[in-house]
Amino acid sequence: MKEYLANRKEKGFSVIQIVALDPEADLEMRSPCGEKALIDDNPLTPNIRYFEYLDQVIQMAEELELYVLLLPVWGQLVVGDNWFGKKFDKIITVDNAYAYALWLGERYRAQSNLIWALGGDRHPVHDGVDYRNLWRKMAEGLAKGVLGKDLKWNQPDKAWSDLLITYHTSCFGNPPLYSTTDYWTDEDAWISFNMLQSGHNPSIRSYEQVEKDYKKAPVKPVLDGEPNYEEMPSAFPFTYPIQTHGEWNVRRRAYWSLFAGSCGHTYGHHSIWRFARKKDERTLYTWQEAMDRPGAWQMKVLRDLMDSRPFHRVQPCQEMLTHPENCADGCLEDHRQACMDSEGSFAWIYFTSGGTEKIDLTHMKGSTIHAWWFNPRDGQCYDSDGSLLTRPFASISEKTIVTFTTPTAGKENDWVLVLDDAEVGYAAPGSNTSNLQSEKKEEAEDEVFFPTVE
After folding, report:
1. CA 219 to CA 186: how far, in whole Å?
2. Which residues contact 288 (CB under 8 A, 6 or more apart)?
3. Where is this region: Disordered (predicted)?
């Protein structure tokens, strides 16, 4: 586990998703040392030796300055079935949810690096059964355990803000409803931020749901907690030969999401979410091999881009584009997503497959705009002809609508157009130097989530 956490720290991740009780890969829910999680499959009699291992993992993460998004249970333990149609005992019930959450919250009351998520890949109303009361009792149990306060799920209280908590939905349905906001209302005072599971269907336009949640009132942060995972099968039930998500699928979901207004994003890999030790027809790599797959490294490229500008000021800005006028239903691989900081000093436009776009520069401040082509595949900047550059490829003095064409175009040829107010003096996008050449870098890490991993 130390190897894994150190690897993720090196790549710029800040949050690790962990499930305390997850039967998907092992119905006995055993630790690496073989300790069962529960005595007699009862959440009210937890095996302390199992949870001592979880203690160690959370502590290791804290020592590396990593947060842990902790799910007390996976949804299968609540609804009693898996995605292959098998049935199981419902171990977590409305009668024991509060007590289990209370125990878990008390155990980790002193931890300063925990964020919480309920749900575990299941809608709160599953196969016609309403489990919302169970999840609400679990939220109240966590509040009592972590905060020592008797909070009610539907009663606003400032103390709820001291317990960062969300809900992890599923992505199934027709049409798929995969946001926290699709199932919970403003009455649920326990929800601090909204989570999506845009899932593993490659045709989902996740930026639409991010935009929808971003504009909701009251305002809450939103992030995609389970998008396309690298080398995850892209069809379920599985079809053969297996088709999987490549690094491009991973990148585009991340850039769409962050530029559309999300506070962070999840990276996942098919071999890592279940820590695969063996390969098979659906598992191309062991978890150790998968840690350094291209998509994982490209999250470091994304993090470097975020760190090179004051990301905490970024807001969606599709009005800079002329493309949305031509973006009908089904526009996916040609989508462009734009954002700009609140002070108008820089803007980013993501071209999913490259191409040409007219950009309205009147939204930006400054008399001169510097333009850069940033490559999300390698983190380098290029000229319009594809030559490496360490300076802007253009300086533009006219604040008007300007046409830009990416250095390359076509499937998997994504690019980010970076536009800067020249007077501010930003360094090259993704540069390891200060995000300002003339001023001290602003610290934003306490204000936002950066790309996450499960």
Report:
1. 11
2. 3
3. 428-454
- Contact yes or no for 409/336 (Cβ under 8 A): no
Please work out, in degrees rounded to the nearest 5, the angle formed at the alpha carbon of residue 29 by the alpha carbons of 23 and 33: 150
With 70 as the cut, is the pLDDT of residue 442 above it? Answer: no
Query: What are the strands, taking DSSP E only, across 178-231?
Result: 194-196, 222-224
User: What tokens were used for 120?
Assistant: 């575990």
Average pLDDT score over the chain: 91
What is the per-residue pLDDT across 19-38, written as a single tens digit (0 to 9) for each? 999 999 899 999 999 999 99
Tell the residue number behind the tokens 């001169």, with chain if given: 368
Q: How many contiguous H segments (helices) and E segments (strands) does the chain have?
A: 9, 20
Find, among 32, 164, 166, 54, the residue nearest to 104 by Cα: 54
Instruction: Give residue 415's pLDDT band: very low, low, confident or very high (50, 70, 90).
Output: very high
Q: State the pLDDT at residue 430.
A: 96
3-class SS of residue 420: strand
Reported pTM: 0.93
Residue 149 phi, psi (nearest 5): -125, 145
Mean pLDDT confidence for 375-384 = 97
User: What is the mean predicted confidence (pLDDT) over 313-324?
Assistant: 90
Residue 104, H or E segment: helix 97-107
- Topology of domain 2-310, per CATH? TIM Barrel (3.20.20)
Distance CA 379, CA 31 (A): 38
Within its chain, how far is the Cα of 417 from the centroid?
22
Query: Cβ distance 271 to 278 under 8 Å?
Result: no
Query: Within the chain, what is the greatest distance between any pair of CA atoms?
Result: 72
CATH class of 313-426: mainly beta
How far is the C-alpha of 322 from the C-alpha of 108, rounded, in Å? 50
Percent of the chain with pLDDT over 70: 93
At residue 333's C-alpha, the angle toward residues 328 and 338, to 5°, is 75
Residue 185, CA distances (Å) to 3, 152, 189, 195, 228 in order: 40, 15, 9, 13, 27
The CA angle 430-14-233, to the nearest 5 degrees, is 90
**Residue 452: φ, ψ to 5°:** -115, 175
The whole-number pLDDT of residue 432 equals 66
